[in-house]
Amino acid sequence: MEMPDAHWNRDECPMCGVIVMRSRFQPDRRLNTRMGVTLFLLGLLYVAFVAALIVLLKSWVLVVVIAAALLGAQYWFSDRIALFAMRGRIVEREEYPQLHGVIDRLCATADMPKPAVAVSGMEMPNAFATGRNADHAVVCVTTGLLRRLEPAELEGVLAHELSHVAHRDVAVITVASFLGVLAGLIVRFVFYSQLFGGGRRDQNTAVVFMTVMGVSAAVYALSFLLIRALCRYRELAADRAGAMLTGRPSALASALTKLTGDIAKIPTRDLRTAQAFNAFYFTPALGRTPGIQRLFSTHPSLEERLDQLGRISGELGESPASGEAG
Prior knowledge:
The protein is of the alpha+beta class. β5 and β6 (137-142) form a beta hairpin. It has helices at 29-57, 60-85, 97-110, 143-148, 151-166, 169-196, 203-246, 249-265, 268-271, 302-316, and strands at residues 8-12, 19-23, 88-90, 116-120, 127-131, 137-142. A four-stranded mixed β-sheet has the order 3-4-6-5, with helices on both faces.
């Protein structure tokens, strides 16, 4: 099926002048704008936060060193941290030839470096991408997902995850989430130091501790809202890019419906350890998100994602059977 012009790049060979048609993930200007605005606002918040800590704690060296160390660790080791937390491991082609084959084809179509391929033994059906750039990226799927999806559905999910890498929003979310992590750690540190610190504290010390805790809590709340807003849009952008790359939005819609329904059946206690990484997942590790909870969700609603994929299917002229082939 021929794809729309927006999905194809025309490259002219400098040697022979032949026009070559190549399919790639198209730049998403709206996503880039949102990422830039989010990072700018979080940067201002970060500077104000560090300045407030320096004034309150009267030790700029300690604050700057700790903040820089945490940011560096999160940026450079985010892929390892995520894989460790989700019990994932890098797998070779001999272990999962079909999985590697699908990623090979998608990367060739998208004209992008192939990321490392990982598998988690978790029953929860999901997938995520992580890493600081396209050359140091990992795409991980769970065995629960591999057992449930047809080949066309798996291709749609992997195209979605690869678009996160191509659009660099994985790295942006990693950096953006740092401020919330730092603020959260400070809140916990102050709370437990007050609770178990013992010893005598004068009134001024108590006021400083409470002020630090209040500022940290406010910063955490603001960064939380900014990141959630960006996360919801980037998921829609990845759905759109993945559907355009494969030309099968109905297969991606089928995978979304299937996985969302299956995750809802998994006991809540089994999802709790995974919820810390919801921002990176293909679909959130939540049974249901009723009412006001949707405002704080890392993902748009299933209905919103399916509506968008339905519009793309109409634009591409996709027949209903094309999404069901597997």
